[in-house]
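Q: I'm writing a short explainer about Ferredoxin--NADP reductase for a general audience and would like to include a description of its predicted shape. Could you first generate the structure from this sequence?
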Amino acid sequence: MSEQLELYDVTIIGGGPAGMYTAFYSGMRDLKTKLIEAREELGGRILIYPEKMIWDVGGLTPTLGKDLIKQLSQQAMTFDPTIVLGQHITGLERQSDGTIILTSATGEQHWTKTVVMAIGYGILEMAKLEIEGADRYEVSNLHYTVQELEVFRGKRVLISGGGDSAVDWANALEPIAESLIVVHRRDQFGGHERNVVKMKESSCVVRTPYAIDSLHSANGTDINEVSIRHVESGEQERIEVDAVIVNHGMRYNFGPIREWGIEMGDWTCKVGSSMNTSIPGVFAAGDFVDFEGKVRLIAGTFTDAVSALNGAKLYIEPEADKYAYVSSHNAKFKEKNKQLGVVEQNEH
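A: Of course. Here's the predicted structure. Afterward I'll give you a sentence or two in plain language.
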């Protein structure tokens, strides 16, 4: 089977920030690279909140999620990796020569010397509103993510949820919505404290501990009223709305990956100092990994990507340099700098 396939040095599973930066850095290390993403587009979990402002990436001023995806995608393509979209990898098999065959859910196969798993928490699914018949409104005004803020301009909006995304959406929508109410079943919000304070100090109405009890429609296709219920007293209130946004968290599913033999906890993979997993030749990065000192920010993900790729490089070439030269001294960037019209000082 392997003789019919093209052999890659490294194959990255996952097209979020960790996977995209791994693809870029793999090019810096002159490795033949393939990236496989289960969705039909790159971006990973950031795709859920494209209008969310991201503040904590070093060197970037506040950047919308969709713009960060665009920049990461462009960077990932710097050294022309092979990108495969719409394939969910379900099988991994080490060959007698140490190479690895990856198999997708639909039967496609990929041959590689090493693997970097940047799969986050696996296949993501939004937790749906558990009310009978709620799904009929998903094509009209029941939303599980905010793709475009302008859709909600001048509307009466109800948000159900209390995590980071719910709080961020409330702060983003408050200036443009006609009215905004946030319903959360607990008194405490899980979002960053500064953002929670901002939300509570705005014109946004916060109702806790309340939960959505039922949805009402005058025309059978759009929600025009929502009944909310006090989770302790059972008292109900009916609210007129133009749009409902539900953020009740995510459901994560690793599927067959747990059967590959990788040492895992409930939601993360255990790795060694070179981001190596318990399977030789398989490395990991991003939200999927856990180790002492792990930084759970996008910025930390980039460091994971570098460490995992360096581990893969040394696995293939034990005598190679431990790290790539920085871009200002890396020969691979000289020609690209010339293409950008940059003349290095020592060339004057």
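A: For your explainer, you could say: The chain has a mean pLDDT of 91.
Q: Perfect, that's easy to follow.
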